[in-house]
Amino acid sequence: MILKLLIFAIVGLLIYKFFGGRLPKTGRSPHEKKLDEDTLVECAKCGTYVTVKESIILHGKYYCSDECAK
Questions:
Q1: Alpha-carbon gap, residue 2 to 32, rounded angstroms
Q2: What global pTM score does this model have?
Q3: Which residue has the higher pLDDT, 6 or 30?
Q4: What is the rounded CA–CA span in Å between residue 58 and residue 54?
Q5: 15-42 pLDDT tens trace
Q6: Rounded to an integer, what distance in angstroms lies between the CA atom of residue 21 and that of residue 24?
Q7: Dihedral angle computed from the Cα positions of residues 54, 57, 58 and 61, in that order, rounded to the nearest 10 degrees
Q8: Among the listed residues 52, 51, 45, the one whose alpha carbon sits nearest the alpha carbon of residue 70
Q9: In the structure, what pLDDT confidence band is assigned to residue 53 with cuts at 50, 70 and 90?
Q10: Do residues 40 and 51 touch, judged by C-beta distance below 8 A?
């Protein structure tokens, strides 16, 4: 009984390490993409790359500054 439990724990640990130490997320569609604050996006007008945190989102598009957003 203890041997089965030990083997189960080792297999569980290997699966956990296989997923990079993170458990897979549930409840999200595979088409959804999470953008971190450090992800670079392209300005819709001038093509400059800025981080999501620094960008201006207007009508679903990313802009690098107020001038480009106008």
A1: 42
A2: 0.49
A3: 6
A4: 13
A5: 888 877 766 666 555 555 566 677 889 9
A6: 10
A7: 110
A8: 45
A9: confident
A10: yes
